[in-house]
Amino acid sequence: MKILLLGEYSNVHNTLAMGLKALGHEVTVASDGDSWKNYPRDIDLRRDLTSRTGRISFLWRLFKALPKMQGYDIVQLINPIFLELKAERLMPFYRYLRRHNKKILMGAFGMDYYWASVNTDIRPLRYSDFNFGDQPRTDIEAQRFRDEWIGTPKEKLCRQIALDCDAIPAGLYEYWATYNEIPQLREKMRFIPFPIRMPEIYRTSFYGGPLKLFVGISRGRNAYKGTDIMLDAARQLKEKYPEKLEIKVVEGVPFSEYTRILDGSDAILDQLYSYTPSMNSLLAMSKGIIVIGGGEPENYEILGEKELRPIINVRPNFQSVYDELEQLILHPERISDLKKQSVEYVRRHHDYLKVAEQYIRLYQEL
Fold it and tell me: What's domain 2-196+352-365's architecture?
């Protein structure tokens, strides 16, 4: 098959491309590298938003790249906003892709209209980026995303593409559950786990000493993802157990540097409001690093996992993070087993070749 993966979130498309290529398919990744994270791609669609010349340069490169986006069996969009353009300007590009290729998919991989509106109004999840139980979240960042996606050109674009496209793969349980609340989209939905390329070297043994804890801060999404609460809990425990805990905080670094700094950690705090491990968490787990974050029962159920429980699941509040992290600090005998389970979990469910095979089955069905 000839496949175009357009756009990037957290290395999803670049990793999927490696799996698809290994299975013998012709794959092109076109993206901006997910902004400052700078993930690899074949066609560079990065835009300099700081100057008028940057805009002109981007448009020139985009129109030059359009002929290279024709003749594919599959075009998979990372999101309704698949190019760094305003939503009201994207529909002509979508129509171009629709006209010059066979099948189009839109990923349910992150922020979009349905994620914001369904979890604000219908609230199928016990908690999410937009609700705590029956109550909508009111913090500034959550409201900013609502304002961006609900009642705006982004909503219109998302609705149009979702209704028109041929399939919608969801990478996490919560995205799958959210989209399934929309009756006219259910038949298009397919849950396929995020892909991870297993590292050649990983650490599953713990020989004592302080617990090395990693915290990655995403620009502009600190409170939205709950990192502020998780980091506060970790710092209070550092004061209580100064010899038993080391904290490494990283913000806004390219992917290559991020992975280098991540290496050697024992645990990572990530995604307070998630049911499931994200791409960053899965990358950490593949290296034998314990995730303290989203590991709800629904996550294991949708994967069919009945044995492994590597994720230290936390409720979306300070006290839960504090208590679970403290228990790990006080019981280091758990660490090696959780590290081993973490590696095996990713190998079973997220290995990039296994995930690529699931995508190929979906593509062939279309």
Answer: 3-Layer(aba) Sandwich (3.40)
pLDDT tens digit sequence for 198-212: 998 888 888 889 999
Q: Which pTM value belongs to this model?
A: 0.94
pLDDT band with cut points at 50, 70 and 90 for residue 253: confident
- The radius of gyration of the chain from alpha carbons, rounded to an integer in Å, stands at 20
pLDDT (0 to 100) of residue 219: 67
Q: Which residues of 175-206 are buried (b: 16+ CB within 10 A; e: fewer)?
A: bbbbbebbeebeebbbbbbbbbbeeeebbbeb
Domain boundaries, the chain: 2-196+352-365, 211-349
Task: Return the closest-CA partner of residue 208 out of 234, 241, 244.
Answer: 244
Intrachain domains 2-196+352-365 and 211-349 with the same fold: yes
Chain centroid, CA 109 distance in Å: 6
CATH topology for the 211-349 domain: Rossmann fold (3.40.50)
User: Mean pLDDT over residues 308-324, rounded?
Assistant: 97
Confidence class for position 255, pLDDT limits 50, 70, 90: confident
Tell me how crowded residue 80 is: count the other CB atoms within 10 A of its CB: 27
